[in-house]
Specification:
With about 190 residues, the protein is mainly α. The chain is built from 7 helices and no strands. It is about 80% helix and about 0% strand.
Length: about 190
């Protein structure tokens, strides 16, 4: 949900500053409006009793009876989890800003957020492309070219991000493998 808010906010800000083609600007504006609506709906789902009420209605409609009272997420739980979402989104935008700075020599938070939102939009509309192969690289090259930052820098931007994702995934696989081996070894040492 926080990702939707961040994408929508930066797209709204970026669309005021940057002009691409009218059709693409309209598509990004529509994407920003839809993600903002999804963010508001997501917040309502998490912070209200709405899901429990809908569940009770559906359960009664199919012949059951719901004895459980509608529940909502405790505020303490939400306040515990929310900073992690905010930090992850901030790091994602900062990653893009740092890469833009390294490639073209300037850092602008709104520009980095605009890239983040536009790349999220590219990912959303290309769900049918297996593994999103080339989508982010192509979208990055287009954005860099359209904003006068250079097409080759856009390709490098996309490839560096792809390499980072592969590296993080590889680290995750290694940690998972090590954890499984450690868990397998734990019962054996307990029996000894």
């Amino acid at each position: 949900t926080s990702g939707y808010f961040v994408s929508a906010a930066f797209l709204f800000l970026g669309l005021r500053r940057y002009k691409l083609t009218p059709a693409l600007d309209a598509a990004l504006l529509l994407y920003a409006a839809v993600t903002l609506a999804l963010a508001i709906a997501g917040i309502a789902l998490v912070t209200t009793r709405l899901p429990s009420r809908f569940g009770s209605i559906i359960f009664r409609a199919v012949g059951g009876s719901s004895a459980a009272p509608p529940t909502k997420l405790p505020a303490r739980t939400l306040l515990t989890v929310l900073p992690f979402y905010i930090v992850s989104r901030a790091l994602g935008v900062l990653e893009k800003g740092v890469l833009i700075r390294l490639l073209v020599g300037r850092f602008d938070l709104i520009e980095a957020g605009y890239f983040d939102g536009a790349l999220n939009a590219a990912g959303a509309v290309s769900f049918f492309v297996p593994g999103a192969l080339g989508v982010f690289e192509g979208a990055s090259a287009y954005l860099f070219t359209a904003l006068g930052l250079g097409g080759p820098q856009g390709v490098a931007f996309g490839l560096v991000r792809c390499a980072r994702m592969i590296l993080i995934s590889a680290v995750g696989v290694v940690l998972h493998w090590l954890g499984r081996n450690a868990m397998r070894a734990a019962p054996a040492s307990e029996q000894s």
